[in-house]
Specification:
- The chain is α/β, with parallel strands linked by helices.
- The chain has 2 domains: 208 residues, Isopropylmalate Dehydrogenase (3-Layer(aba) Sandwich), CATH 3.40.718.10; 127 residues, Isopropylmalate Dehydrogenase (3-Layer(aba) Sandwich).
- The chain has 12 helices and 12 strands.
- The strands form 2 sheets. Strands 2-1-3-12-11-4-5-10-8-9 form a 10-stranded mixed beta sheet, sandwiched between helices.
- The two termini are 20 Å apart.
- The chain binds nicotinamide-adenine-dinucleotide (NAD).
- The site of nicotinamide-adenine-dinucleotide (NAD) has 21 residues, from loops.
Length: 363
């Protein structure tokens, strides 16, 4: 046992909800060493880079990163390298965090927080797996042009088979551990990258005969997600489609404060021996931002951060038992009527700390 986690709370509500996540993590695994650093706007204000060297060094010797969120309005007009968000950019780049995993769950009693009818989202439990380091966001050429006096611009969508293979395997592996249903989303009727994507998926599928595979075109997938969300188990897709679909899936729950994420990647210094299944290096964070409108009030929903810690245990520390224990404690806190302000809907809201204590009491 024993592991080291780099804790990077960041800005706004980041420190408040990360504190909750660390408290829950330590309640189940007191052997984990958490090493905390100021990053983002908190570091910039002290004249340091958004990801200071000592924070980066801690990530280098950690098993995983527990991240809060970064971003402050005062830096919005600065170039990327001088903004708090640069910390996240550097971590995604340096650790090639290619697999973004977003579980979307609607807890019992929170169905009316969704903008869909409660009967459509009751018991909803799906995962979106998004390729995070390739595709149109990174392909070259990528530029603004002047073509014979006409203003124009180009982005390039490019995928190589190995990039597709690794993310598709992540999707199949996840589906295998759940309801064994994988939906691969592409646009193969139009895009060459999608034709390659589908070919690679078909090539890998025989290795997972226990998983039912379905292909959907992205426009249809966007529709089905709001028509029959309960039919999905694991969705795997490329970067831009995943960006859009994962946000669409997220709003099914009604509050951004309940949704965790994992971004899995590689860390050269970790060594091949430790990068085995169930112990992949990763960064874990709520999908929401720094919520400047509620920061410092003690009312933020810590669920996303707490569930991010559960994902950290599951994927980077191969500790399914404690991950499931945390998830079940959160579920029971909701079942017992604990609600922070974002999901209170008329009932008396509890504070960030009270919700955290309620989860710890149910572990
Ligand atoms: P946001 O997610 O911070 O806030 C959107 C709305 O959701 C706000 O009303 C906020 O109060 C609410 N909200 C978010 N998390 C909540 C929680 N845990 N509990 C209760 N309510 C919650 O998005 P935004 O306002 O567009 O962005 C604010 C800042 O966060 C910006 O600087 C942006 O760049 C940054 N941001 C960072 C990340 C990240 O670090 N990964 C992600 C998104 C946005």
């Amino acid at each position: 046992m024993g592991a080291t986690v780099a804790v990077l709370p960041g800005d706004g509500i980041g420190p408040e909800v990360t504190r909750s996540a660390v408290a829950v993590l330590h309640a189940v695994r007191p052997d984990i060493t958490c090493v905390e650093h100021e990053i983002g706007g908190a570091a910039l204000r002290r004249g340091l880079p958004a990801l200071p060297d000592d924070a980066h060094a801690t990530c280098e010797r950690s098993d995983a990163i527990l991240f809060g969120s970064v971003g402050l309005p005062e830096y919005d007009s600065k170039p990327l390298a001088e903004r708090p968000e640069y910390a996240l950019f550097v971590l995604r780049r340096d650790y090639e965090l290619y697999a973004n995993i977003r579980p979307v769950r609607v807890f019992a009693g929170l169905e009316d927080a969704s903008s869909l009818k409660p009967e459509l989202v009751r018991g909803l439990d799906l995962v979106v797996v998004r390729e995070l380091t390739g595709g149109i966001y990174y392909g070259k050429p990528k530029e603004q042009r002047n073509d014979d006096g006409v203003e124009s611009a180009v982005d390039t969508m490019i995928y190589r088979a190995p990039e597709i293979e690794r993310i598709v395997r992540t999707g199949f592996e996840l589906a295998r551990g759940r309801r064994k249903h994988l939906t691969s989303v592409d646009k193969q009727n139009i895009l060459e990258t999608s034709r390659l994507w589908r070919r690679v998926v078909e090539r890998i599928a025989p290795e997972y005969p226990d998983v039912r595979l379905e292909h959907l075109l992205v426009d249809n997938a966007a529709m089905q997600l709001v028509r029959r969300p309960g039919d999905f188990d694991v969705i795997v897709t490329e970067n831009m489609f995943g960006d859009i679909l994962s946000d669409e899936a997220a709003i099914l729950t009604g509050s951004i404060g309940t949704l965790p994420s994992a971004s899995l990647g590689t860390r050269p210094s970790l060594g091949a021996a430790r990068a085995t299944a169930g112990r992949q290096f990763g960064l874990y964070e709520p999908i929401g931002g720094t919520a400047p409108d509620i920061a410092g009030k003690g009312i933020a929903n810590p669920t996303a951060a707490i569930l991010s810690a559960a994902l950290l245990l599951r994927y980077s520390l191969d500790d399914e038992a404690h991950a499931a224990r945390i998830e079940s404690a959160v579920e029971r806190a909701y079942a017992d009527g604990m609600r922070t302000a974002d999901v209170a809907r008329g009932s008396a809201p509890v504070s960030t700390n009270a919700f955290t204590e309620a989860v710890i009491a149910r572990l």
